[in-house]
Design brief:
Structural class: alpha+beta
Order of helices and strands: HHEEHEEHEH
Strand content: 15-25%
CATH class of the largest domain: Alpha Beta
Largest sheet: 5 strands, mixed
Helix content: 40-55%
Number of helices: 5
Number of strands: 5
Number of domains: 2
Length: 136
């Protein structure tokens, strides 16, 4: 009963007599480029979009074409493309213990690191200029 009460409390629901945590919700985690990464307890048979929505949705820097799904039950890893899943019209169901990792896109990493790259280019330009002036 204590497990059911804890699971119900985690979902913001009152505890019900005779229920165990697995019957209350599907436990899944989402990490990476989402607004609220963490572990979630979803009712029924949730799909990938429900899990991502619970996590506050993807951030602006998310790469939705390379999501990594790790299945706890058998340890398999699979790359998912949310755009293809949405276009297919078929739900992609989350199973208990799934871990979804939303990676950062290349352009997000590039723009985040742009100040460092710009500084390196300025320093390299300065070194070349000083070297050329020293040869005169």
């Amino acid at each position: 009963m204590a497990v059911a009460a804890l699971a119900a409390a985690a979902m913001g629901q009152p505890a019900a007599e005779g229920l165990t945590a697995p019957s209350l919700a599907t436990r899944a985690a989402v990490w990476g480029q989402v607004a609220k990464p963490g572990q979630y307890f979803l009712r029924g048979s949730p799909d990938l979009f429900q899990l991502l929505s619970e996590a506050g949705g993807p951030s602006a820097g998310a790469d939705l074409t390379r999501i990594l799904l790790i299945r706890e039950r058998d340890g398999t890893r699979r790359r998912l493309n949310v755009n293809r899943i949405a276009a297919s019209g078929q739900p992609f169901f989350v199973v208990p213990g799934d871990v979804v990792i939303v990676p950062e896109s290349f352009w997000s990493k590039f723009t985040r690191n742009l100040p460092v790259v710009s500084t390196l280019v300025v320093v390299a330009n300065l070194v070349v200029t000083v070297t050329l002036l020293a040869r005169r």
